[in-house]
Amino acid sequence: MVHPVQSVIESLYAAGRCPRLHVDATQPAVVVPDFIRQQWRERLIIDLDASYPLDLVFGEKGIAADLSFGGHVTRCSFPWESIYIVMDRATGRGIVLDRHVPESVKRQQQQAAAAQPAPAQQAARVEPAEVKPELRSVDGEAAAEPEAAPPPEVAPASPSEDQAKKRRAAFRVIDGGG
User: Fold this and answer.
1) In this structure, which long-range contacts are made by residues 48-54, counting pairs with CB atoms below 8 Å and at least 24 apart in sequence?
2) What's the pLDDT tens digit per position in 6-60?
3) What is the DSSP letter of 175?
4) What is the pLDDT of residues 72-99, one digit of tens each?
5) Phi/psi at 3 (nearest 5 deg)?
6) DSSP bridge pairs for 58
7) Which domains can be identified in the chain, with CATH numbers?
8) 63: nearest Cα among 114, 7, 131
9) Is the pTM of the predicted complex or chain greater than 0.70?
10) Roughly how many angstroms between the first and final C-alpha of the chain, as a whole number?
């Protein structure tokens, strides 16, 4: 039987897409460099970009791949239980494995959801082109968004190049990708 994580990764590759994994690197069976484990803990994000020679292997207990961190290639492995989100890097669509989501991540998502403004206030703050990821749950529960992001800033209908540069500068760089 094929694990749901493997199935989604293979489907994304078949569609020419890049799978993005959210991994709980605090689990003892996860093999990554120590500085990555310490820096990213339960929120390690790995992009399995097919253009990079990953030597990706699916096993009975998880996956293994050659990943580059700061220019140094390391053979890493991730048990199935450590992977809690698999999604398309470009669209954010994918699956959430609810039973694998770390409790600390669930608490942060609940706190962020409680801090969100009322829908009427929120609608006024959302840019017209904003697309939210569509995630579905493998475990049958409502899927939570992978990370709470700060609300977007109000933008005029036709942004200038300067405004676009300012918005791009506000994006957070993820330093844990492969």
Assistant:
1) 48/9, 48/18, 48/19, 48/20, 48/21, 48/178, 49/18, 49/89, 49/178, 50/13, 50/18, 52/178, 54/178
2) 999 999 999 999 999 999 999 999 999 999 999 999 999 999 998 888 999 999 9
3) T
4) 999 999 999 999 999 999 999 999 999 9
5) -70, 145
6) 63
7) 4-154 (2.30.30.220)
8) 7
9) no
10) 27
Closest among 109, 110, 73, 85 to 24, alpha carbons compared: 85
At residue 14, what is the residue type?
A: A
Helix segments in 58-158, DSSP class H: 103-115, 119-125
Instruction: Please report, as a single letter, which amino acid is at residue 25.
Output: A
Which of these, 141, 9, 2, lies nearest to 88 by C-alpha position?
9
The residues, ordered by sequence, that sit 6+ positions from 34 with a Cβ below 8 Å of its Cβ are none
Q: Count the neighbouring beta carbons within 10 Å of the beta carbon of residue 20.
A: 24
The residue type found at 132 is K
